Structures are given as C-alpha cells and as structure tokens.
C-alpha cells in the first residue's frame, strides 16, 4: 500500500496515545488505537465469561467483534464502552489474551483496514514490527517506569477512576513484563525504529520531534 503510516509503539504510560492523537490532528490523518481493540475484546470476553486462556473461543470472538470508533467514542455492539475499557483490570486482561497467537491473528486484518487516505498514525506494541512493517516512519516511545506509572495514575484519576498507586505500579510492571517477554509480537523497537525517551520531554516536544521526522521522510 502507498498510503503513509506512522507507527508509535511503546509501553503503557509512555505517552504514545496522546502523541498519536496530536500528530494525527496536525497531519489530518486517521488514528488507530490498537490497544483499545485489545481492551474491547477483553471486556467482551470478561462479560461473556470466557477464560483468558480459551484461545479458540477468543479467536472466534476477535474475528466477530462488533467494535466501532465513532466521533471519539468506542462502541461495543453499539454500547459506549470508552470509560469501562480504561481500567487497569481490563488492561491486565487485555495483556493476558494479547499473548495468544489466535487472538493477534484474529485482530490483524481489522487493524490493517484502518490504513486509509490520506494517512494513518497507529499506536500500540507491534505496529512497526508486525502490523505495518512497511511504515516509512516508526517511533518507539519509552519513559522511566516511575514516570509512566505517574502518568497513568493522573490519567485514571482525571477520568474519575479511583486508583491505588502502589497497586497500579505493580499492575503496570506485570503487564509490561508480560508484553515484553511473550513469544508472539513482543514489545520491542523495530530494527528501523527511532527510539525516543520521553521521561524528561514535554508532550509538545515529542510531537514536534515526530512531525520533524515525518517531514524529513515525507
Ligand atoms: O495500549 P494499551 O495499554 O491500551 O494496551 C492494552 C494491552 O493490549 C497491552 O498491555 C498489550 O498487552 C495489548 N496490546 C498488544 N498489541 C497492541 C496494542 C495493545 O498486545 N498493538
């Protein structure tokens, strides 16, 4: 495909969601929040009482998932689940099912379908390594574990969720470890990715850097 893609991968709390939204707005491109798709599948599975290890059932569910992103809303079978999918408990369930090959396969084409004119900014763990390997610009965004936990804490608080900081730090640590060490599509920079450490950078500085790279590679 000739349609341009910028991939932004990284661990939870690295700022990739915010950066993805701002870069896409600047360029007038589409957004793929792939983590939201894994989260919606996790929520649907939890609601249906499917165990996070039932690979065949989860693969079927992944292929049939009725998820839509409309006007900034995340809909599951028409119901707004935007808030429900943001809890760390759904994130943890998502990371368990995301380690299954059948689940990743079941969601692959759905993610590639987001590549539409005039371009796409895709946020996740394997956007550059698996889903859009031919992307002309790949970013891997990191930050220290403390800073990432702090950002997630503020995000959750702002969204009105009650959070226990030590428990959150532990859950994020476990989730990142699972995402990094899994056999299928582990979290790691693509060979041709630009690695950006955002620990001491503002969101604006990261966005500027990504846009500068996009212009150079345009
Ligand atoms: O990015 P977010 O925190 O919303 O993702 C939730 C979980 O979904 C991650 O911890 C990861 O296990 C999984 N995920 C993934 N591949 C992606 C995006 C998310 O495995 N491309």
Automatic annotation (TrEMBL):
One of its GO terms (molecular function) is CMP kinase activity. This is Cytidylate kinase. GO terms for biological process: nucleobase-containing small molecule interconversion; pyrimidine nucleotide metabolic process. It catalyses: dCMP + ATP = dCDP + ADP; CMP + ATP = CDP + ADP. ATP binds at residues 10-18. The keyword Metal-binding does not apply. It comes from the Bacteria. Keywords: ATP-binding, Cytoplasm, Kinase, Nucleotide-binding, Transferase. It is an enzyme of class 2 (transferase). Pfam families: Cytidylate_kin. It is found in: Cytoplasm. Residues 6-214 form the Cytidylate kinase domain. Belongs to the cytidylate kinase family. Type 1 subfamily. InterPro entries: Cytidylate_kin, Cytidylate_kinase_dom, P-loop_NTPase. GO terms for cellular component: cytosol. It comes from Thiopseudomonas denitrificans. Its EC number is 2.7.4.25. The gene is cmk. The keyword Transferase applies.
């Amino acid at each position: 495909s000739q349609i341009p893609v910028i991939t932004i991968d990284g661990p939870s709390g690295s700022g990739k969601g915010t950066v993805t939204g701002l870069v896409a707005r600047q360029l007038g491109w589409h957004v793929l929040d792939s983590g939201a798709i894994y989260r919606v599948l996790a929520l649907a599975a939890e609601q249906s009482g499917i165990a996070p290890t039932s690979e065949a059932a989860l693969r079927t569910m992944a292929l049939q998932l009725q998820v839509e992103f409309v006007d900034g809303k995340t809909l599951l079978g028409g119901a707004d689940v935007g808030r429900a999918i943001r809890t760390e408990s759904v994130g943890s369930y998502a990371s368990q099912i995301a380690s299954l090959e059948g689940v990743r396969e079941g969601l692959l084409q759905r993610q590639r379908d987001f590549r539409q004119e005039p371009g796409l900014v895709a946020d996740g763990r394997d956007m550059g390594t698996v889903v859009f390997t031919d992307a002309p610009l790949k970013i891997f965004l990191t930050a220290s574990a403390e800073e990432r936990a702090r950002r997630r804490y503020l995000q959750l608080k702002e969204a009105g969720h009650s959070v226990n900081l030590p428990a959150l730090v532990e859950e994020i640590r476990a989730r990142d470890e699972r995402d990094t060490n899994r056999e299928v599509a582990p979290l790691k920079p693509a060979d041709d990715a630009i690695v950006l450490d955002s620990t001491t950078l503002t969101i604006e500085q990261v966005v500027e850097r990504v846009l500068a790279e996009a212009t150079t590679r345009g």
